[in-house]
Amino acid sequence: MKIGILAIQGDFELHRKALTSLSVDSLFVRSSKDLDNIRALILPGGESTTMSLLMNKFDLFNSIKKFSNNFNLFGTCAGAILMSADSGDRRVKNLGVIDVFSKRNSWGAQIDSFSDFINLNKDEILSDKFYATFIRGPRFSKVSKDCKIIGHYKNDPVLIRNDKHLISSFHPEIGKDLSVYKYFINMINE
Fold first, then answer.
1. What is the pLDDT, as a whole number, of residue 50?
2. In the chain, at which end, N or C, are there fewer CB atoms within 10 A of the end residue's CB?
3. Candidate list 124, 152, 171, 190, residue with the active-site label
4. What's the pLDDT score for residue 109?
5. Alpha carbon of residue 7 to chain centroid
6. Rounded CA gap, 122 and 124, in Å?
7. Which residues pair with 139 in a beta bridge?
8. What is the pLDDT along the chain (190 residues), one digit of tens a residue?
9. Residue 147 catalytic?
10. pLDDT tens readout for residues 41-55
11. Which of 15, 77, 147, 165 is catalytic?
12. What pairing do the DSSP bridges indicate for beta strands 148-153 and 156-161?
């Protein structure tokens, strides 16, 4: 299995390190042709307005949207904003592949970044606690009934999936716990 990582802006290199640690092949995706060689795609954190502009500039938006009909996407932070149904920001073109509203920079500015334990729905892959890092992350609301909240920070949903896709408002690539990646890989194999 080869997982693509959108590599036009953001922290894509850390995602590759995480996948390599799990012995999973990865490919940096910079063109629509790259999508032909992968089974899933990670949209990393970064700056959602910039990523949105670059996805359009490199003619990736429609290709990724089409790819998402048959393959899994995992969006972290800015990637989650791009995947959401709406972000309330006209500068961001949303893929609309997961029916939630995402509000940009809801945990504060860069200086307000923090790490803390979040609660996960414990299963065979996820433990009930995960040490998560939030960097200008989104808050999720208006979560559709076709979505399942699998992680909370206090009362806020921070890890959500639907039948095919996964989003997080935190950065799972920061830290040593790779269980969220294992969860996503399990989704690919469902």
1. 94
2. C
3. 171
4. 67
5. 13
6. 7
7. 103
8. 999 999 999 889 999 999 999 999 999 999 999 999 999 999 999 889 999 999 999 999 999 999 999 999 999 999 999 999 999 999 999 999 999 999 987 676 677 788 999 999 988 898 888 999 999 889 999 999 999 999 999 999 999 999 999 999 999 999 899 999 999 999 998 8
9. no
10. 999 998 899 999 999
11. 77
12. antiparallel
- Assigned token pair, 102: 């995402």
Cite the DSSP H helix spans in the chain. Answer: 12-21, 48-57, 61-68, 78-83, 179-188
**pTM of the full predicted structure?**
0.95
Q: Is 47 known to be catalytic?
A: no
Handedness of CA 133, 137, 139, 144 (dihedral sign): negative
Q: Tokens 């899994």, residue?
A: 72
Catalytic residue among 15, 147, 165, 173: 173
DSSP 154-168: TTEEEEEE-SS-EEE
